[in-house]
Amino acid sequence: MAVTYADIDVAVRKKYLPNTINQIFKATPLVVRLLNRHNVMCKGGTKISQPVSYGSLPSGSYSGLDPFNTSYAQTHTYAAWDWKNLYANITIPGDDLAKADSDEAIIGLLEPKMDSAKDTMIDMIATQIYGDGTGNGSKDLDGLQNGVDDGTNFATYGGITRTTETWWKASMDSTGGAFTLDMLGTAYGSVTSGGVQPDLILMDQTLWDKMESRVQPQQRFISDDLAEVGFQGFKFRKADVVADQFVPSGHIYTLNTEYIKLIIHPNRNFSWTPAKQPVDQDAYVRQLLLMCNLIVTAPWRCRKNLSVT
């Protein structure tokens, strides 16, 4: 009996798709940490809207019948980001389908394609997470490059202008130079406020290797969420320091991931397009779709160092 599109769908959804999504989410330490914080979430709407708190209410000391300041103070606004769309294409020649006459044959057709779809999505998502959103005519994800910026390179983020709304700026140092632990300490302190501290520091492998030679043995332990999926690292104060191959060379990100979210649209949550048969080819064609974006909801809680050697 010839294989049908329904047979392929069953094999993909039961055997391959869950594993593909799982591996995509575990490919970079930032997404692993966001999953642990439940900051990977499904959300609908025409845009990604996020309320942002930036001001304080009237307050002060008083005595007796001193009048209170009851004037209105604006303390919140909304940031908004566009949805971004990603896809991976799978094409199987029709004559290969015609030869498939068993479950094993179906799996043999699908396995290399699903592996390729997984690897393609991993590379695309992880690369764009560290990008600036301007790639491919601004169709790429809004990554950490524009999310963690002081307005020098990206004056507007989430529809809010950093030149006028200075509270929307991230901490950034583009001085660069040789890596030192003091540099990391300054970065950590710049985005620490009382008990609100960074929890994740990301850098390229070269810088991580330099830091590794400087840390004490008791620092060589990281949180379980990262260690359990195979990442190596160490502690710097209360933050996990992890290398990520997708971090641009010379960059160090000091992040409070409580204020970073990966938002996924429920109608495009690793969903398949309907099966297609090209009019001029004998083939089975489908696309794996993802609609999402990465947002930084409090840039001032994060820091970026550039040109570190």
Radius of gyration: 23 Å
How many distinct helices? 9
CATH class: Alpha Beta
- Percentage of residues in DSSP E strands: 25-35%
Please give the CATH architecture: Alpha-Beta Complex
Helix content: 25-40%
Cα end-to-end separation: 62 Å
- Count of β-strands: 14
> Runs with pLDDT <50, length 5+?
none
Structural class from helices and strands? Answer: alpha+beta
**Could you state the order of secondary-structure elements as H and E?**
HHEEEEHHHHEEEHEHHEEEEEE
What's the mean pLDDT score?
Answer: 88
Outline the structure in words.
- There is one protein chain.
- With 309 residues, the chain is α+β, with helices and mostly antiparallel strands.
- It has a single domain (5-53, 80-305), classed as Alpha-Beta Complex (phage-related protein like fold).
- Helices cover 30% and strands 26% of the residues.
- The protein has nine helices and 14 strands.
- The protein has helices at residues 5-25, 29-36, 94-99, 103-129, 135-138, 144-147, 181-190, 205-212, 224-227, and strands at 40-42, 48-53, 76-81, 84-93, 156-157, 160-161, 171-173, 200-203, 233-236, 239-243, 252-255, 260-272, 283-296, 303-305.
- The strands form four sheets. A six-stranded mixed sheet has the order 7-14-11-8-10-9, with helices on both faces. Strands 1-12-13-4 form a four-stranded mixed sheet. The protein has a two-stranded antiparallel sheet with strand order 2-3.
- Helix 1 packs parallel to helix 4.
